[in-house]
Specification:
CATH class: Alpha Beta
Shape: globular
CATH architecture: 3-Layer(aba) Sandwich
Structural class: alpha+beta
Strand content: 15-25%
Oligomer: single chain
Number of domains: 1
Number of strands: 4
Strand order of the largest sheet: 2-1-3-4
Length: 106
């Protein structure tokens, strides 16, 4: 089976959705962290939608969100999910396939 080729961040448009829980401290950190990562590494190449689960509880079921904060990369495909406050920027960048995953056996 061939391994997936990571998208080229220079030519890709990233569509991200972050599920948070109101004004919880962990959710607030996740919002700040992902905005910083996007502005630093994806300037003008991303759309970020922040969804408060208290305002849109239906979205939890539809998108199979089991914990918050949860970041979902909708595009480029394939879909990717990350849970937590997104404070480890290297892990987030690797998870979003913006940089190669240092733990990958390639």
């Amino acid at each position: 089976m061939a391994s997936a080729i990571p998208p080229d961040p220079a030519s890709s448009r990233y569509v991200l959705r972050l599920y948070v829980s109101g004004r919880a401290a962990r959710s607030a950190r996740a919002i700040v962290n992902i905005r910083h990562i996007c502005e630093t590494h994806l300037k003008n190449q991303y759309e970020l939608e922040v969804i408060d689960i208290y305002q849109d509880p239906q979205g939890l079921r539809e998108n199979q969100v089991v914990a918050v904060p949860t970041l979902i990369r909708l595009l480029p495909e394939p879909l990717r999910r990350m849970i937590g406050d997104l404070s480890d920027s290297d892990r987030v960048l690797a998870g979003l396939e913006i940089i190669p995953n240092p733990e990958s056996p390639d």
